[in-house]
Amino acid sequence: MKVAVLGAGVVGTSTAYFLAEDGHDVVVLDRQAGPGLETSFANGGQISACHAKPWAAPGIPLQAFMWTFQADAPLLFRPWRFDPALWSWGLKFLRNCTSEREHINMDRTLRVALYSRKVLKALRQKTNIQYDQQINGILHIYRTTPEFDVGRHTGEKLQKLGLSQDVLTPEDCVKVEPALAPAVKKGEITGGLMSCDDESGDARLFTDELAKLAATRGAKFKYGVSIKKLEHNGKQVTRIVTDQGDETPDAVVLSLGSYTPMLAKQLGLKVPIYPAKGYSITAEIENSEAAPTVSVTDETRFMVFTRLGNRLRVAGTAELAGWNTDLDPVRVEPLTKNVMSLFPKASSYKDINAWCGLRPATPDSVPIIGATPFENLFLNTGHGTLGWTMACGSGRVIADLISGRTPEIDVDGLGLERFGG
Ligand SMILES: Cc1cc2nc3c(=O)[nH]c(=O)nc-3n(C[C@H](O)[C@H](O)[C@H](O)COP(=O)(O)OP(=O)(O)OC[C@H]3O[C@@H](n4cnc5c(N)ncnc54)[C@H](O)[C@@H]3O)c2cc1C
């Protein structure tokens, strides 16, 4: 079958790889000059099933409101901005801020994330793909006792759903990650949670390498192609109109990240994805022993620290401010300040590469994976904060659906139909 995958981020590329493995005639279209050059470019690098807790939860609306006046807040949104897309997304988000919805959404996300970890492992064994990976877990650190208590409570919920985590004292944290010794000595860390089966690695490098593997299996990648329009006959998508000519595939997968809603709208589909802008900085490691080897999440400051070869990546912050990719120094500063405080000797931090990207966020933090009212159109998008974590699993699921196989996980509750659209 001829399948067009729209978007060559980590999600689209994973989908293309598994479709090519199944023997389909795959074409991938992307406006960039190569794979993984938008949101998949410089993310936090974590394969973190342990972060399956959705953003929407009881208490979050009040917390988010308190942050509205703080320019460097971890989550920034300004509801008074004229932005109907944000208001509509925000209302759906509010509906998900109950304990019951939080549990359902955590279960759905974790289902995909745990499966994805398994698929990634099998892929690594099969292909020996290299992407500065660290297969040694993720350590969450907490700076206050109340936050540590909340973290442990969430950990217990995740444990019931299949994710194991160990509770650590500050001293245990140093045993896991010796580079935290100065912070523990200063009494800055109250405790930690260790998710041993999680991993980390460079998502862009992975996407690049996986695109090559997909190409060796016959997938064609067409870059510098801007997709303008999707034509349909009411039942099927019939034509993809681009600035470089048209495609007429048998099946289409939309994996356009934060830009999915625009093209889906042409088909009358309402896809509730809103961009959650995030920032990262990357610094050269100059003193290896002072840099972390295990990926660390600072749960108090909402930041992740990941070693990628001889680079240290710090990522975090979220801003709901539309499809805007301007770099704001005010949002970069907390990342620099915190890495200099937590790992002061790892680098001189003189040359820092700052970057921002738009996480394709759904109101319930669950990706949108599955069929649509159009017989030959599939969605694999809306992975929000966990697109790298869930890419392999969701790519495998879409390939299974298109190939007529039953996916290995229950896909109930993952599709667009849950939004009634
Ligand atoms: C600061 C930050 C930190 C993060 N940290 C992590 C982390 O540690 N772990 C994790 O799992 N996730 C993390 N994420 C989230 C993760 O990066 C995203 O979920 C993921 O990259 C989304 O991948 P995607 O393929 O869906 O989208 P993208 O990578 O954005 O790919 C979409 C592609 O579609 C193309 N496109 C869009 N519109 C068109 C068009 N009209 N024509 C042609 N091409 C088009 C774009 O060029 C792009 O290449 C982080 C994100 C940010 C911003």
Write the layout of secondary structure elements.
Elements: E1 2-6, H1 10-21, E2 25-29, E3 46-47, H2 60-67, E4 75-77, H3 84-95, H4 99-127, E5 138-142, H5 145-160, E6 166-168, H6 170-176, H7 181-185, E7 191-195, E8 199-200, H8 203-216, E9 220-222, E10 227-232, E11 237-242, E12 245-247, E13 251-254, H9 260-265, E14 274-284, E15 295-298, E16 303-308, E17 311-320, H10 329-342, E18 352-361, E19 368-371, E20 377-381, H11 387-403
The structure holds flavin-adenine dinucleotide.
The site of flavin-adenine dinucleotide has 41 residues, from helix 1, strand 14, strand 18 and helix 11.
Notable traits:
binds flavin-adenine dinucleotide, 33% helix, 9-stranded mixed sheet, 11 helices, FAD/NAD(P)-binding domain, 2 domains, alpha/beta, 6-stranded mixed sheet, 24% strand
